[in-house]
């Protein structure tokens, strides 16, 4: 649904050039929820703004729903933009228009006739649960309500793709949760493809099927969340399951075990203790239900050196776990 | 001079001021909006970047802004004759008033439009809005309270400028105050005129504030 290849964007200024996006390749399949994580200044917003050509890339191609956007003339680009919804961290609503007026604006822009607008606005407000607040002005709404207006507006033209730049960063955890639930619901009911940017792990945990970690304009890691979790040394896996635990234990082998998908339901620690008659200890760990999968990560201490535990570790791998020896 | 004579003078003066200010406000609103929008559009980061046009327009506006009104009044006399057919009277005064106020209001328009959050403009662009829609439905609409507040300031400045319209026989309250009060020492007339001016300005400000409150939903 979204195909990006070799994307580059440099900001030029007197103070010097900043390479914001430095060769990014990205494919987001239909109905997928793709999350891009990264520190401040990594180039996430620039990447997103290149998808609907709010920023013109210097190199590379972007196509959405089979339409190559980089080469389009102004008019064609405007039409293509109707199929790409976007939501913003600070909502970006028109303060001079009511909730209904803001949604209607999106319809006016797409050229929906006046007579149809009313029913469509009502539909959209119903979809995001804001029917009661239709005549309120944005200044009278809570952050969560404003973002719902933003979402309704983004969906006005029945886009196939939704871009989201830190849509929940200005919201408290509970409101974030309700917005994420709404996005997930839209993704499932409308088959909406979502490309989102965030610095919050919860967002990835809750709704992303795929994710990428961005640093200095590049993707350092990217793929399906379930696969990334199994990938040795994955930053994402580590950040998704942070825990405090000792790195080494005298006289024992410390191993990090990550399981995901159906394997997450295997009682691996019990199996291990029973089969190898080992006094396995749990040093730390978490289990999470992610959007696409269930997963867990533990740090275990097995008595004895790595050699003595070779069979036990091999057995863990056959159970589908990703095993890394910490010390 | 009797009070009824003073009242007659005031009545005529008030009508002249009201006419001059009303017509030049209307013309200034149109001209200032046009120039202000052009200044924003032609900016190098604007929607129709044209740095040379922007620079020339900015220079003209700055010249207009820096010229003392009394000089402008005299300098545009030939242009006034061309436009109105005469160089004296209330209608003739409207020409320099408008020319003097357009650059003033244009800068107010420019800064009001720049106050519209870039985020909101980007959102409209991302929706596929045309430039015309962005100017009309986003920039001008969102800036409306600031534009009305700015126009109120402009109207009051025009009331002040119009006091000098007497130089070209424009009449009005300000002219009355200068001729009777300052030149003929008719203190009562001067005080009455000044009071009338204060009331006028006060009314304009109140009306402006009311409108701004009505329009603002921030
Ligand atoms: N309009 C601009 N002009 C010049 N440099 C810019 C511009 N926008 C962004 N940059 C620079 O490009 C780099 C990437 O910025 P970007 O906004 O894409 O980062 P980000 O990952 O979204 O960060 P954050 O999490 O803080 O939003 C930064 O170094 C930033 O300073
Ligand atoms: Mg950003």
Automatic annotation (TrEMBL), chain A:
One of its GO terms (molecular function) is ATP binding. The keyword Cell membrane applies. Signal peptide: none annotated. It comes from the Bacteria. PROSITE patterns: ABC_TRANSPORTER_1 (PS00211), ABC_TRANSPORTER_2 (PS50893). Residues 2-241 form the ABC transporter domain. GO terms for cellular component: plasma membrane. GO terms for biological process: amino acid transport. The keyword Ribosomal protein does not apply. Keywords: Amino-acid transport, ATP-binding, Cell membrane, Membrane, Nucleotide-binding, Translocase, Transport. Pfam families: ABC_tran (PF00005), NIL (PF09383). Belongs to the ABC transporter superfamily. Homodimer. Forms a membrane-associated complex with FtsX. PANTHER family: AMINO ACID IMPORT ATP-BINDING PROTEIN, METHIONINE IMPORT ATP-BINDING PROTEIN METN. Part of the ABC transporter FtsEX involved in cellular division. Has ATPase activity. This is ATP-binding cassette domain-containing protein. It comes from Actinoplanes aureus.
TrEMBL record, chain B:
Keywords: Cell membrane, Membrane, Transmembrane, Transmembrane helix, Transport. InterPro entries: AA_ABC_Transporter_Permease (IPR051322), MetI-like (IPR000515), MetI-like_sf (IPR035906). The keyword Cell membrane applies. This is ABC transporter permease. Belongs to the binding-protein-dependent transport system permease family. CysTW subfamily. The chain crosses the membrane at residues 20-41, 53-77, 83-106, 146-169, 189-212. It is found in: Cell membrane. GO terms for biological process: D-methionine transmembrane transport.
């Amino acid at each position: 649904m979204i195909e990006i290849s070799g994307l580059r964007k440099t900001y030029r200024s007197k103070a010097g050039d900043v390479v914001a996006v430095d060769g990014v390749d990205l494919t987001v399949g239909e109905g997928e929820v793709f999350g891009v994580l990264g520190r401040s200044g990594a180039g996430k917003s620039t990447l997103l703004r290149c998808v609907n050509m709010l920023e013109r890339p210097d190199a590379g191609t972007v196509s959405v729903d089979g339409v190559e956007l980089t080469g389009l003339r102004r008019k064609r680009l405007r039409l293509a933009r109707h199929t790409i919804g976007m939501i913003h961290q600070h909502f970006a609503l028109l303060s001079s228009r009511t909730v209904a007026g803001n949604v209607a604006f999106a319809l006016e822009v797409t050229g929906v006739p006046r007579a149809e607008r009313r029913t469509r606005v009502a539909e959209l407000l119903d979809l995001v649960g804001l029917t009661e607040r239709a005549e309120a002005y944005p200044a009278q709404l809570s952050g969560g309500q404003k973002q719902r207006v933003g979402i309704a507006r983004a969906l006005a033209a029945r886009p196939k793709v939704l871009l989201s730049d830190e849509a929940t960063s200005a919201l408290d955890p509970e409101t974030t949760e309700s917005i994420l639930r709404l996005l997930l619901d839209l993704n499932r009911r409308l088959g909406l493809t979502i490309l989102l940017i965030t610095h919050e792990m919860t967002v990835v945990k809750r709704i992303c099927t795929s994710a990428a970690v961005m640093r200095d304009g590049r993707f350092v890691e990217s793929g399906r969340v379930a696969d990334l979790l199994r990938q040795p040394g994955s930053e994402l896996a580590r950040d998704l399951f942070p825990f405090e635990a000792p790195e080494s234990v005298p006289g024992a082998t410390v191993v990090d075990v990550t399981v995901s998908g159906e394997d997450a339901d295997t009682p691996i620690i019990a199996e291990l203790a029973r089969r190898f008659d080992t006094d396995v200890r749990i040093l730390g760990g978490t289990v999470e239900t992610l959007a696409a999968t269930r997963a867990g990560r533990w740090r275990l201490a097995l008595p004895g050196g790595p050699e003595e535990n070779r069979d036990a570790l091999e057995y863990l791998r056959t159970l589908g776990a990703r095993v890394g020896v910490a010390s | 001079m009797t009070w009824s004579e003073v009242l007659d003078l005031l009545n005529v003066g008030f009508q002249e001021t009201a006419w001059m200010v009303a017509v030049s406000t209307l013309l200034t609103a149109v001209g200032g909006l046009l120039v202000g929008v052009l200044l924003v559009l032609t900016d190098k980061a604007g929607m129709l970047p044209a740095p040379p046009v922007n620079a020339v327009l900015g220079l003209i506006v700055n010249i207009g802004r820096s010229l003392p009104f009394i000089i402008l009044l005299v300098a545009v006399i030939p242009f006034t004759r061309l436009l109105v057919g005469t160089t004296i009277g209330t209608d003739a005064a409207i020409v320099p008033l408008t020319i003097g106020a357009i650059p003033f209001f244009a800068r107010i328009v420019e800064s009001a439009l720049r106050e519209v959050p870039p985020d909101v403009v980007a959102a409209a662009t991302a929706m596929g809005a045309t430039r015309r829609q962005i100017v009309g439905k986003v920039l001008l609409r969102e800036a409306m309270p600031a534009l009305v507040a700015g126009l109120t300031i402009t109207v009051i400045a025009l009331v002040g400028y119009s006091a000098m319209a007497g130089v070209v026989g424009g009449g009005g309250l300000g002219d009355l105050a200068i001729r009777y009060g300052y030149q003929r020492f008719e203190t009562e007339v001067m005080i009455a005129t000044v009071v009338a001016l204060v009331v006028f300005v006060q009314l304009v400000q109140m009306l402006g504030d009311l409108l701004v409150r009505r329009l603002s939903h921030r």
